[in-house]
């Protein structure tokens, strides 16, 4: 498990990174897009530092999709994106993501208080 640090801003190379890519896809394209996104996820999963990932579709707006992956650290995530195999096999679909920041550092969530 990663070590957690409160109050640290920005990326540190020792933290788990959550990468969130959102996509807007017409219903007519959805089946093909899902297959392409699944193939991209399979390819990302082969890269060193990959922890896990999932594909989702918004329940209120079914044209909004998400690919969420977790990485051992930001270096692993960035190296995965720059690898030849990912550039060739995953970047074409990943380039369709909405233009917004995608990498998040994970923070410790306090345990619920008992009453």
Polypeptide structure, described:
This protein has a single domain, classed as Alpha-Beta Plaits. It has helices at 30-44, 74-82, 84-89, 91-94; strands spanning 17-24, 50-57, 64-71, 103-105. The two termini are 28 Å apart. A hairpin with a 6-residue loop joins β2 (50-57) and β3 (64-71). 30% of the residues lie in helices and 23% in strands. It is of the alpha+beta class. Strands 2-3-1-4 form a four-stranded antiparallel sheet.
The description of the largest β-sheet is: 4 strands, antiparallel
Number of domains: 1
User: N-to-C SSE series?
Assistant: EHEEHHHE
Average pLDDT value?
Answer: 87
CATH architecture: 2-Layer Sandwich
**Helix content range of the residues, please?**
25-40%
Gap between N and C termini: 28 Å
Radius of gyration, CA atoms, in whole angstroms: 16 Å
Total number of helical segments?
A: 4
* Percentage of residues in DSSP E strands: 15-25%
Supply the CATH class.
Alpha Beta
**Count of DSSP strands:** 4
**Strands of the largest sheet, in order across it?**
2-3-1-4
Q: Sum up the overall morphology in one term.
A: globular
Q: In the CATH scheme, what's the topology name?
A: Alpha-Beta Plaits
Which secondary-structure class do the elements indicate? alpha+beta
Uncertain spans, ≥5 residues at pLDDT below 50? 1-12
């Amino acid at each position: 498990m990663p070590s957690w640090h409160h109050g640290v801003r920005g990326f540190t190379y020792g933290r788990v990174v959550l990468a969130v890519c959102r996509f807007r896809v017409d219903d007519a394209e959805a089946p093909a897009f899902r297959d392409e996104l699944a193939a991209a996820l399979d390819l990302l999963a082969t890269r060193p530092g990959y922890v896990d990932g999932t594909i989702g579709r918004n329940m209120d707006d079914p044209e909004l999709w998400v690919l969420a992956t977790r990485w051992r650290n930001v270096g692993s995530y960035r190296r995965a994106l720059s690898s030849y195999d990912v550039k060739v096999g995953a970047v074409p679909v990943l380039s369709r993501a909405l233009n917004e920041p995608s990498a998040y550092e994970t923070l410790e969530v306090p345990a619920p208080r008992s009453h």
